[in-house]
Amino acid sequence: MSVRLGEKETNKKPAVFLDRDGTIIEEIGFIDDPNKVVPISNAVEAVKRLHDAGYSVIVISNQSGVARGYFSEDTVRAVNGKVAEIFNNDSAKIEKFYYCPHYAHGIVPKYSIECNCRKPATGLVEKAIEELNVEPKLVIGDRESDIKLAKNLGILSILVLTGYGKKQNDYVGQMTDFIADDILQAVEWFLNFNNIF
Questions:
Q1: Is the pTM above the cut of 0.85?
Q2: Exposed, middle or buried, 127 (CB in 10 Å: 0-12/13-18/19+)?
Q3: CATH 3.50.30.40 fits 13-196, yes or no
Q4: Could you give the 3-state DSSP secondary structure of residue 138?
């Protein structure tokens, strides 16, 4: 294990980073109400399998609706709380949610900035590594930004065809390590891939 100067060597738990909208819950646009949360079919089972296989499951999402003035950070946290409640009730533990509220072309000055946390930038994953002592192994998502995030981290990526997945161009499909119909197929491929290699 490589250790930076000044750091103690630690045993990091392997982690899978999941996009939220269109990957584990239905994509309905800018979701502004926890009551609109609907899990994607088999998403709870997929997260449970990752958890049972010893992976820390972390949700990481761009929430530019804050910068666009559509809703507040409190709304994002409330929606995340509802997602956590649904999944955790079925023993599909999501360890933590991270989100980026920024968007350079937004209308709320506080959030209308360039940042290092909006995917595909790696800032939120770096924060998770520091706070949770995890080692990223995989990113699953339905957008180019998810696949590029994985590339920037030097880890595996899976594009799911739920959400905006089917609307991604061929370039995104060529970048990713696997294209899955949904998150359950993505998880099955990943766990099988690790068993082989």
A1: yes
A2: middle
A3: no
A4: strand
